[in-house]
Amino acid sequence: MQTLINGSPGTSVSVMDRGFLYGDGAFETLSTIDGRPVLLSQHLARLESACQLLKLRFDEGLVKKELFQLLQDASGSQIAKIIITRGVGGRGYRPSAESIPTRIIQLFEPTNPSPIEESLGVCITVCQHRLSQSEALAGVKHLNRLDQVLASAELSEEFNEGLCLDIEGHVIEGTKSNLLVFKNGGALSPDLSQSGVKGIMLMEMSKLLTREGRSIQTTKLTINDVLEADEVILCNSVFGVSPVIKLIQGDRVKNWPIGDFCQQAIQLQNEVFASSY
């Protein structure tokens, strides 16, 4: 791992940094290939939007400069993370208008995918932990990820991912991914207006599938909707697209093929990653 903190190599931040104290900040995680970030403009636009909502100062030019500083000698596939916190502040929740944001840019080697993830699809379950709802924060990749931490803690080694439901029982996302379900010739995407994050890869895949003539409908999904789907995929900006081949929920087991929809989604994912070459 390599890290720049406010443009300089480092490994720690102040114990009074509000990102550390309160999760007061936002972040993006993206793939890089041979030093070239994938879908960088989309990630920076979402990060800027999050910073505006949280009333954090955001300097896109400086962030890009520091990111490419870290990537200048990079090769192969790596994972970049960009974190903006409100910076150092005093005790108490009330932020100071004088706070100077902390910028943290990190570069990680990718974890090696298992054979099942790489070629045969993934096995998933349904997490018991329910996602909180907040219309104001829905879609924002803020630093408080306790919902995802608690949901991920439920996953045993047999599961690659877990589906997360909101407090009303609607399917929202995976612990680290978005999902699309394919049924009767069209694709369904969960309603993310109250919970969850609309991932950059989800938005890109939706755009490309629409270009290819696939209809995408955003709706409130239930587990039964997922179980009745013809095919299911997960997606995020790091692994791209993964077909779901099995869902286990207690005594219920559902198997899916890697059919035409999954194959098309994988081809479109390859198009996205190739655009960075």
CA-atom Rg in angstroms? 19 Å
Order of helices and strands: EEHEEHHEEHEHEEEEHEHEEEH
Q: Give the CATH superfamily of the largest domain.
A: D-amino Acid Aminotransferase, subunit A, domain 2
Structural class computed from helices and strand pairing: alpha+beta
Question: What is the fold-level CATH name, i.e. the topology of the largest domain?
Answer: D-amino Acid Aminotransferase, Chain A, domain 2
Termini separation: 23 Å
Give the count of helical stretches: 8
Residue-averaged pLDDT, rounded? 92
Largest sheet: 9 strands, mixed
Work out the count of structural domains: 2
Per DSSP E runs of 2 or more residues, the count of β-strands stands at 15
Q: How much helix is in the residues?
A: 25-40%
Q: β content, as a range?
A: 25-35%
Outline: globular
CATH class of the largest domain: Alpha Beta
The residue ranges in which pLDDT falls below 50 over 5 or more consecutive positions are: none
How would you concisely characterize the structure shown here?
With 277 residues, the protein is α+β, with helices and mostly antiparallel strands.
Give structural notes.
The structure is a single chain. The chain is of the alpha+beta class and 277 residues long. It folds into 2 domains: 2-108, D-amino Acid Aminotransferase, Chain A, domain 1 (2-Layer Sandwich); 115-274, Alpha-Beta Barrel (D-amino Acid Aminotransferase, Chain A, domain 2). The chain has helices spanning 18-22, 40-54, 60-71, 115-120, 146-152, 200-211, 223-227, 260-274; strands spanning 2-5, 8-9, 25-33, 36-37, 77-85, 102-108, 122-131, 161-166, 171-174, 178-183, 186-190, 216-219, 231-236, 240-249, 252-255. Strands 7, 8, 9, 10, 11, 12, 13, 14 and 15 form a 9-stranded mixed sheet that branches. β3 and β4 form a beta hairpin. The two termini are 23 Å apart.
